[in-house]
Design goal:
about 675 residues; alpha/beta; 6-stranded mixed beta sheet; binds alpha-D-glucopyranose
């Protein structure tokens, strides 16, 4: 097919191309252009048939619900991010979707944000590393991606009208940084602008964000696509270099034509976007030869299970309560039968799999009787039911309670109101701990949960995140010791919902001011030297690890090879995520105590040792200087911290950076 150029299109066609043909497709002008079909989402393909592309109620194909992005991040294994992207791209190939509207890489600023389950981390470096692999996993299979939601979409309440107000350094070092890191390593076919305003201007009309930063500084060369309904005025968004308004918007063409007639925008402005769109359309065609269908839905579920198993985080394990003993066990909680496997909204898939009951999987793997009571079903009330539960629990030496937050509480378009579990769940745990001293709690939730009310009463807490269709397969392997936990938290679990940033549900006049600046998550906790429930990077194993022999080999002015040894002191092979943080104590600007700059996940044999090495470059020492409008390394003493979490530092070493004087300031 001859490639159409801007000159081959009439003005009417050019203007029409700026907006979607329907909910999921671009215009083709009766075959003049190849068709492009876009579809959600980050946790599995959510796509309607082409016949239904014009109506919102269309039934979506049944696919595999993958572990949510929160879980992918909690694996701290970039290969898991790659595999997730690859599996979902395989579904796109099966159903002929050209672009997957994923991954979301917004920073988890507040634990209340209703879409935290769709995002990687509170830390931009971790989000960047995992986002790179996710994009590669999708695009290596010939399917496009959409890096979203650009930018500062860190709250769901009033998302179409609220303003996220942040200073330049905070934006560059924290909120835009994942996009920058991913664009340094990959070429996503699209970036999706968010619903919200940034510093008073909708991102869909924010040329500073969409052109000056995203294209001119970050080097993005794909198309900028609006979130669905985020484009309010089509000519003003053309002026901001928003290439594609989605979905179809009846008044868009007229808005652009009027603006052209009045000289508010020029035809060159239109042609700029049309040029980008044509390049995008033909790039998608050029990617198609890479498309090869590889997996059945069963094979996709197997891959999902491996990722889910790596993603769950053992928060505590007193008295070696886990792995479970091979003794009669009581399993409580409706979610053991009907798991909270994903968050709600556009990322939710219609699963083609049935979820096995956790009771059956545990019974099979333990070889013992497992008694189940739902105990938390909606109508579970009154003393009778509670009394029955307690009487039962009193007769067991091992009780597993599954609690959490399902899509009625965690969903796109709304924030959580608190990080505490539902009173019914807290009551169940409290009742059981009154009559049993060996309680294990499993939490299925998409973001930080306050466990302070029960963590001292129970032995073990396993955070399952939203693990998708594989949730009970992964849980049964980890609870019975068939697999060893290796996940680590990619967000801080605070004691209170507003410990490290204001309550995002109370934003005066719709303005959410990022008063904490760069001190988000563990950066804030460290700055305040504040206690946290569970720190960023925390996660236990069934074995203990010992760290020794930290070395720093200088390879260049700011290039180092950092190496250390990790010993597995246990009797089973296990994986450890070691984290490397860097801090500059005496800087001329306020800087976090330490920031994650490298990490490594390594399987270490029982009683064995692994020599780990990671590299640091300039970015490990630099901060964004608003006067230079660039990243800057200030000479001086830095500390390299190596730890099992941001609060479990095992080794540290001082480095002196001494760059040539011409790079420094008096
Ligand atoms: C939704 C979401 C976005 C999704 C799009 C299409 O509102 O914000 O992530 O890709 O619209 O469903």
């Amino acid at each position: 097919m001859k490639k159409v150029t801007v000159k081959d299109l009439t003005l009417e066609e050019k203007v029409s191309l700026l907006t979607g043909k329907d909910i999921w497709r671009l215009h083709t002008f009766s075959g003049k252009l190849p068709e492009v079909f876009v579809a959600d989402g980050p946790h599995g393909l959510r796509m309607v048939s082409r016949e239904n592309a014009g109506n919102w109620g269309g039934e979506v194909y049944k696919t595999t619900a993958m572990p949510n992005v929160v879980n992918v991040a909690n694996t701290w294994n970039p290969a898991c991010a790659y595999e997730t992207g690859k599996v979902i791209a395989d579904e796109c190939i099966e159903h002929d979707a050209d672009v997957l509207l994923a991954p979301g890489v917004n920073i988890k600023r507040s634990p209340l944000c209703g879409r935290n389950f769709e995002y990687f981390s509170e830390d931009p470096y971790l989000a960047g590393v995992m986002g790179v692999e996710y994009v590669k996993g999708v695009q290596d299979k010939g399917v496009g991606t959409s890096l979203k939601h650009y930018a500062l979409n860190n709250s769901e309440n009033d998302r179409s009208s609220m303003t996220a107000e942040a200073d330049e350094r905070t934006m560059r070092e924290i909120y835009l940084r994942p996009f920058e890191l991913i664009l340094q390593e990959t070429k996503p076919t699209t970036v999706m602008c968010s619903y919200n305003k940034v510093n008073g201007i909708h991102t869909s009309e924010n040329r500073y964000l969409l052109k000056d930063i995203l294209r001119d500084i970050f080097g993005f060369d794909g198309i900028v696509i609006s979130d669905w309904g985020a484009c309010h005025n089509r000519w003003k968004s053309v002026k901001a270099a928003l290439d594609l308004c989605m979905p179809v918007k009846e008044d868009a063409d007229a808005q652009v034509m009027t603006a052209l007639k009045n000289g508010w925008i020029s035809e060159a402005d239109v042609d700029y976007c049309v040029e980008n769109l044509l390049n995008f359309i033909y790039r998608i065609q050029d990617m198609k030869p890479l498309r090869k269908l590889e997996f059945t839905e069963e094979q996709r579920l197997e891959k999902a299970t491996a990722i889910a198993t790596e993603s769950m985080v053992l928060l505590q394990n007193e008295n070696s309560a886990l792995p479970l003993k091979k003794i009669p066990t009581l399993l409580l909680g409706r979610m053991a039968e009907f798991p909270a496997a994903c968050g709600g909204g556009s990322s939710e898939v219609s699963s083609c799999h049935t979820h096995p009951h956790l009771k059956d999987l545990l019974a099979e793997k333990l070889g013992v009787e497992v008694t189940f009571r739902s105990a938390t079903e909606p109508h579970f009330n009154g003393l009778t039911a509670a009394r029955e539960c307690m009487d039962l629990a009193a007769r067991f030496d091992q009780v597993v309670v599954v609690v959490g937050e399902d899509t009625s509480l965690v969903c796109e378009g709304m924030n959580r109101t608190d990080i505490k579990l539902h009173p019914k769940h807290l009551q169940l745990i409290d009742n059981v701990t009154r009559v049993c001293d060996n309680v294990i709690v499993v939490i299925e939730a998409g973001s930080a949960v306050d466990t302070s009310e029960f963590q001292d009463k129970v032995n073990a807490i396993l955070y399952a995140g939203y693990a998708g269709d594989a949730v009970n397969y992964a849980l049964s392997d980890l609870l019975t010791g068939a697999a060893t936990p290796s996940g680590k938290l990619s967000e801080t679990f605070p004691y209170e919902k507003d410990d490290f940033c204001p309550d995002i549900n109370f934003t005066p006049c719709g303005v959410d001011r990022y008063v904490e600046g760069i001190f988000v998550g563990y950066r804030g906790a460290d700055a305040m030297d504040a206690d946290v429930l569970y720190p960023f990077g925390h996660g236990l194993s069934y074995v203990n690890f010992r760290y020794e022999n930290l070395q720093a080999e200088k390879k260049g002015e700011t290039d180092y090879v950092i190496s250390y040894d990790i010993y597995n002191e246990g009797d089973m092979d296990a994986a450890e995520v070691s984290q490397v943080y860097v801090g500059q104590a005496a800087a001329r600007v306020a800087r976090p105590v330490k920031e994650l700059k490298a990490f490594s996940k390594d399987v270490i044999p029982a009683r064995g040792k692994k020599h780990v090495s990671v590299t640091l470059d300039k970015s490990a020492f630099a901060y964004y200087n608003v006067c230079l409008k660039d990243w800057h390394v200030e000479n001086g003493a830095f500390t390299v911290y190596v730890g099992a979490s941001s609060r479990d530092i095992r080794l540290k070493k001082k480095l002196i950076v001494a760059l040539p004087d011409e790079t420094q300031f008096t």
